[in-house]
Every structure is written in structure tokens, then in C-alpha cells.
Design brief:
Blueprint lengths: L2 E5 L2 E3 L5 E8 L7 E7 L6 E6 L5 E3 L7 E6 L4 E6 L8 E8 L4 E2 L3 E5 L2
Parallel strand pairs: 2-11
Antiparallel strand pairs: 1-3, 3-8, 4-5, 4-9, 5-6, 7-8, 9-10, 9-11
Length: 114
């Protein structure tokens, strides 16, 4: 059974930082492409960043130079370091494993507000 468990969300002021974590089980993590998506209220879910098994990364234009995706294969965990957060980054952030038909975590809320 595949499980993706996100953590690290919370309330932060504009300009602040957060690091999200996603612990995976039930997949061969080392060979899996992992991704972070987000969904703001009233909007469609959007791709934020991806990382391949070879550590090739890709980012949405809106987060380039502010967010960094990384992975630790020994811990079967993918991270999203978010710096210089803006109010428009407020959303539920979801971890995604691109395995089979895809697997999703339950999401973690990130709120950027003063």
C-alpha cells in the first residue's frame, strides 16, 4: 500500500520560509519521479516542482528562484524548501509520486499572511 505523508505546513509571514517534507512508503522511491503540487481556494491544482530519480528538477515559473525541491533516498523523503513566500503561495500543498496511475498525499496547508 502506497502512503505519502506530508508535513511542515503552517502560517508564515510574507518573506518567510517553510520546508515541506513528504515521507513515502510502498513504492520503490529511488526510481520514482516525485512532485509537489498545490491548490489554492477556488483554483485548479497546479504543478509546483518535480524531481526525477536522477535529481533533474523542474519548477513552475511562479516559484523559480524561490523554491527548491530535493530528495533523500535513504529516508524515502522528498522536500520542498520555500523561501521568500508570498500571499499568492497560500494553498494546500500535495506530494505526488509518479508511479503507476500516480499517488497523492493528504496535503498540508501553507498560509502566507501578515
Amino acid at each position: 500500500q502506497v502512503q505519502l505523508v506530508e508535513s511542515g505546513g503552517g502560517l508564515v509571514q510574507p518573506g518567510g520560509s517553510l520546508r515541506l517534507s513528504c515521507a513515502a512508503s510502498g513504492i520503490i522511491f529511488e526510481t520514482s519521479t516525485m512532485a509537489w503540487h498545490r491548490q489554492a481556494p477556488g483554483k485548479q491544482r497546479e504543478l509546483v516542482a518535480t524531481i526525477t530519480s536522477g535529481d533533474i528538477t523542474n519548477y513552475a515559473d511562479s516559484v523559480k528562484d524561490r523554491f527548491t525541491i530535493s530528495r533523500d533516498n535513504a529516508k524515502k523523503t522528498v522536500y520542498l524548501q520555500m523561501n521568500n513566500l508570498k500571499p499568492e503561495d497560500t494553498a494546500v500543498y500535495y506530494c505526488n509520486a509518479r508511479v503507476g496511475f500516480g499517488h497523492w498525499g493528504q496535503g498540508t496547508q501553507v498560509t502566507v499572511s501578515s
